[in-house]
Hints:
By secondary structure, this protein is an all-beta fold. It has no helices and 14 strands. Among the domains are: 3-38, no CATH class; 82-149, CATH 2.40.50.100.
Amino acid sequence: xxxxxxxxxxxxxxxxxxxxxxxxxxxxxxxxxxxxxxxxxxxxxxxxxxxxxxxxxxxxxxxxxxxxxxxxxxxxxxxxxxxxxxxxxxxxxxxxxxxxxxxxxxxxxxxxxxxxxxxxxxxxxxxxxxxxxxxxxxxxxxxxxxxxxx
Length: 150
């Protein structure tokens, strides 16, 4: 029987069901999308506290804001199908290309909302969009494949 959890990450709701954990692999479902993940350790990890900045007079503390710059993908080797992965969790606001479109390296492909900011997802290489995995409105996790360029 799967254990079910509800998470709110950066203002977005996620429903996570953790199924069986066998031989170092766990079967999970995030918002209905199944994943098979590798378990690195059987022990629970303690959450790391957010860094705080003390402001004078030291009557309160505030978490330092994160303001990511334009998200850049690492350059992929030429030739062959190459997946473009999400650099961070968020929601796809807009998809700017269609399957079969020719794209140039650095061309804007998608807009990802993360931490209440719009982030450009640019082509990591020139080629043709072979498959689009995520659509407008889809929630994504860091490392999810967004699309494939060949």
